[in-house]
Amino acid sequence: MSLLGTLARLEAVRSGRAEPLATVRHRHLSDRPMVVVPLTAAGEAGAPLAVMLGTDRSAPRLHIVPQPLNRTLRFDFLAELAADLLPYLESFATEVEQIEGSEKDPETGEKSQVFRELCTDAPQLIVPNSAGVHHLALLGRSTRFRRTVEDDEPGPYPAPARVPLLGRWLTHLTDRAQVPGSSLLLAMTGLLSRHWATGQSHLEDQHLAARLAWHAPPAGLTGAEAAERAESARDEAGQLLHPPAGPATDPRFDELVLGPAIARYDAAAAALLHTVQEPGGTDARQARAAVRTAVEQLRTVLSQVLLPTWHDVWHGLDLLRALPPGGHLAERWTGDRWSYTGHRDRLAAGEPPQPRQDDAVTAARKLAQREREQARLDVQEALDDPLAMAEHRLAGEAFSGVVTEVVPDYDTSGRSPKPRPLVTVRTADRPHADLGREAHRVREAASSESGGGPSAQKAVIAAVDPAEGTITLRMLSGMGRRKEPEPGSLPEPGERVTFTLFELTVRQSAPLPEPDDTPWTHGGPPGAASAPGPVPAATAGSTAGSTATEEWE
Amino acid sequence: MNVSTNVPSTGHFEPLAQRLADLRGPAPQRSLNARALAALAANPGCHRRAVLDAAGVDKSALAARLGRPAPFGQSPFALARGVIFESRLKEDDYTALLEPLRRHLGLPADGGAPLAVPDLLRRSGPAVRAERTAAALAEAAADPQAWTLLDHPLLRLTVAGSTAYLEPDAVVVHDGRCTVIEIKSFPVLDGSADPAKVGAAARQAAVYVLALQETAATLAGREADRNPYVEQRLPGSPRLSVLLVCPKDFSNRPTAVTVDVRRELATTRRQLSRMTGIGRLLDALPPGAGFDLTSDGTGAPTRSAEQLAESVEAVPAAYSPDCLSTCELGFHCRARARCGDRVEQLGRGVRGELGSIRTVTEALAAAGAGTTAERGARPDTSPGDDEDNADEAAARLAYAAALRAEALGRPLAAVTADAPAGAGAAR
Fold first, then answer.
1. Strand, coil or helix: what is A505?
2. Are A403 and A461 spatial neighbours (Cβ–Cβ below 8 Å)?
3. Mutual orientation of helices A223-232 and B330-339 as an angle, nearest 10°?
4. Mean pLDDT of chain A
5. Pair A529, A535: CB distance under 8 Å
6. Which terminal Cβ of chain A has fewer Cβ within 10 Å, N or C?
7. Which of residues 30-69 of B touch A (CB under 8 A)?
8. What value, to the nearest 5°, has the Cα angle with vertex A199 and ends B72 and B366?
9. Which of chain A's residues have a Cβ under 8 Å away from the Cβ of B408?
10. A224/B338 touch (CB, cutoff 8 Å), yes or no
11. What radius of gyration do chain B's Cα atoms show?
């Protein structure tokens, strides 16, 4: 946490309510987000218990697993979830725009014009917290390798047809969620933390209801009191007034409410099985009704614990939508659209599911992408939001001030003189401004519209006067090609300017080889490991191909 | 019982135990288990926890009496899952458990060497069970060729004058040395597991290793070596790597990983040795302090909630938000930190950032005072060279406050107003 963040938290402690950490919204929000609130069964890794989802806050849909340990019921649930979620995910795949690009022929090196499809919009999933993202990743991992009834060799426990597809989408979305600044899958707690500080720690901020309590504490309560009430207040039956946002449920709920309800379902299901096996059949209808009743009861108790969180997530969206969008959101969302389009194309091309572990080149690429995106996000947020820029000013990587003087000067070393004017800025900031260091002028007009980033204006530090609080910069570029600077390309005396000591565009990293050219130092091309050879048993097992399936007990 | 050889000075031991018992009152002593000992190592600076644990006070009950009950509990589903996984490993003469043992400990394949599983008298009392475990360990360590599995042995560890009984899931003895087997029901997915859970398991296993070292030292008739850098090499000494057995992926089949617990062992050892210095902490208690949670004959509590709160307050705590998930008194200590206006309520890292500033009021005052005085001047010229880091932290805060006010377009007064809870509403 930076000192500015700490300061905001201190203010929140004092004011008793959330304090802003941003002046604009830094994440894209879809017009039609899909809110997903998952619950998991305690003790079982990634075992689903229920999910509440939908794009309409007044019409949540609920899917449950009446007995989380029953494989068939779990598959029924996943099939229902796939039938619910996949149409939403696929609904963005048809509307595309053509993006012009160039492609280099690998043999002749000739460049040719190509058009690539880019979906005009992409889906957006919102879950309550980062544990929800993790749960979706586990669901994706546990389903994407499953064989289905449509496979040639369905195996002993085939899954319903669309379940592995759901797994592949969930894997893609959770993978993309690791990319800084991406918005295909977002956790509400993370979104709120980026934009507001509460007067509690990061750890406590993971509790969505407690976090939100700081935004609108009931009259007469401070945020801290309201948050504590959300965390721990219980009714006479010992149940939390505000259930946790999941995916784990409250142990007391498991013990006193969910456990008995599942036991009733088990008993009803056993009775039904018994009547079906015993011919006679008059009781069968009654037994079926009993099972239905038990399922209905489970649906009721689960929707009771899910609904508060469902409303919390939508409440969070309301708060975020009240902020004006940052200038670079469209540009970053285009990256998400490319990601979505890419996955759509891989599915259409019939590629196998994502492997359990990435090969060396893919892993290196993902890491490089995340680092690049993090750097890009930092720069773009700083350009969009003076409060984010303040972080850099506090760190001595940027400074703002008022221009006191502009002195024309020229570089006469070449054939024709070039303008190299000197701009003096008075600032209270304390940048690490060494003489000769490169600085970049932030130009707001250019950054807010065209997605391609601001037209750069470079300068070097020419003089620093700590006593006067002035910094003099020699401008190097962005002044046109003529002998005199283009009108309007230089700041006027009295104008407020901001310079950064870091570049405002992110450099591309060095290219990585194709996976087929993975050097032997990194294990060689993927697939080679499964070739016969002295491969240790342990590694052979873990890389045994993406088509491997596994038992799921 | 020759357990007293572990106690450093018998003369000092009795009064200490008596003082701790007096603090607890007539309530039954909560014995320390491995989880509690491991949690103690997670927040070593907390005197409050050290005193309450040493005295064997029921912290859950205490937290409830103080009005902020512990939020912990374990789901019956999670418990059932753990029991099912362990019983699957142990059914059919430990068939499922043998595979990881072969792979990681070198247990020969079928028929190579029989695995002896001595009866450890699990239905007896703890003292008898601990004696039986020690005897079985000695017997197993005597024959280097044999493979012995001690199923739920009971180990004794003396902590601050009181005896704790610890029950590892299993211990395998071969070649004169033993290895702790820790069975956990969280999965190892594609070769990796939740680091927080692995860390907790390692801390817990380290407590078992420590207890086994004590046991081996007792068997050898000497004191356990206090030097943490020397690996104990007595008959029956534990290895410093433990075997963690978990479900593989989404199945119920086991997979195992060896986990080096030397670091956890050193931390735990240091923590527990500090607890013998508990006398010093007790000396600082005011007369009349106590944590008696019992009721007298009429049903009225012996000590009122206020008296209990006063006694708890007399022992300093080292609260950090992590406590909320590890300590029963977490919510109480948080409330106290908030009342005391302490900056720790925002997290451990915050204290480092704020230097010697300890309260929210001080921090906000520093943020406000600096900005008005230094606005427009060069902030880095004001603190002289001889100023300590408190002024440096204050100057940085003031600078940050100025930047924040400027970015938000707020007047500085909004930042500096220090009327509690009033400023936010006016915003």
1. coil
2. no
3. 170
4. 85
5. yes
6. C
7. 68-69
8. 135
9. 20, 23, 387
10. yes
11. 27
User: Distance between CA atoms of B175 and B262, rounded to whole angstroms?
Assistant: 21
- Chain A residue nearest residue B346, CA to CA: A201
This prediction has a pTM of 0.86
Q: Is the minimum CB–CB distance between B156 and chain A shorter than 8 Å?
A: no
Encode pLDDT of A504-514 as tens digits. Answer: 887 777 778 88
Minimal C-alpha gap between B108 and chain A (Å): 18
Listed in order, strand segments (DSSP E) in B90-233 are: 115-116, 147-151, 155-159, 162-166, 170-174, 177-183
When pLDDT is averaged across residues A198-226 and rounded to a whole number, the result is: 90
The two three-digit tokens of residue B411, written as one number: 């007047």
pLDDT reported for residue A1 = 53
Contact B346 A224 (CB under 8 A): no
Max avg pLDDT among A45-59, B232-246, B318-332, B340-354? A45-59
> Rounded to an integer, what distance in angstroms lies between the CA atom of residue B13 and that of residue A104?
82
Q: Answer whether B346 sits within 8 Å of A390, measured CB to CB.
A: no
Cα separation values, B385 from B367, B381, B390, B397, Å = 20, 10, 12, 18
Contact criterion met (CB below 8 Å) for B295 and B27? no
pLDDT at residue number B373:
42
Mutate to test the interface with B, among A6, A139, A265 (most CBs of B within 10 A): A6
How close, in Å, is residue A387 to chain B by CA atoms?
A: 5
* Cβ-contact A217, A226 below 8 angstroms: yes
Contact A550 B249 (CB under 8 A): yes
Q: Can you tell me whether residue A424 is helix, strand or coil? A: strand
Contact A251 B397 (CB under 8 A): no
DSSP-derived 3-state class of residue A539: helix
Query: Which residues in A lie closer than 8 A to residue B404 (C-beta atoms)?
Result: 4, 7-8, 387, 390
Nearest to B370 by CA among B344, B337, B392: B392
Mutate to test the interface with B, among A1, A4, A7 (most CBs of B within 10 A): A7
Of A14, A43, A430, the CB nearest to B364: A14
Rounded to whole angstroms, what are the CA distances from B388 to B356, B368, B396? 10, 19, 13
If phi over 0 gives left and psi between -120 and 50 gives alpha, with beta otherwise, what is residue B190? left
